[in-house]
Amino acid sequence: MFDSESSQYKVQLIFDIKGFMDVEKLTNAIVTTAGKHDILKTKLYSSRKGVFYQLLMSSMDTEIEYEEMIDHQEKLEKLLADQYKIIDIENIIS
Questions:
Q1: Of 33, 38, 37, nearest to 54 (Cα)?
Q2: pLDDT (tens digit, 9 = 90+) per residue, 2-42?
Q3: Exposure class string for 69-86: b at 16+ Cβ within 10 A, else e
């Protein structure tokens, strides 16, 4: 999902998790996995001519946001609908 305030494209996934979730362990697992697979630490940039450049980051910032959605059906439905919006990557300039 494109964040117009920061000019960044962010991956947004929605999971239905039942029971306890240890956010710190999940964050550590994501960082460890990204450390083993360079493609997960890659940023794409586009020139004004539409040429894309790939930059491999030495590390990545990982922030996991979560919210309990019990009794928030309308908000959950909006999040699910927004998850599938089309991103025009050619017009995203970082």
A1: 38
A2: 445 555 556 667 777 778 888 889 889 988 998 888 888 88
A3: eeeeeeeeeeeeeeeeee
- Read off the DSSP letter of residue 89: G
Report the alpha-carbon distance of residue 74 to residue 18 in Å, rounded.
19
Q: Are the C-beta atoms of 90 and 46 separated by less than 8 Å?
A: yes
The answer to whether residue 58 scores a pLDDT higher than 50 is yes
- At 59-93, the pLDDT tens digits run 777 777 777 777 777 777 777 777 666 555 555 55
Contact 42, 55 (CB under 8 A): yes
Sequence letter at residue 14? I
Round to whole Å and give the CA distance between 62 and 34.
10
Give me the phi and psi of 93, to 5 degrees please: -120, 125
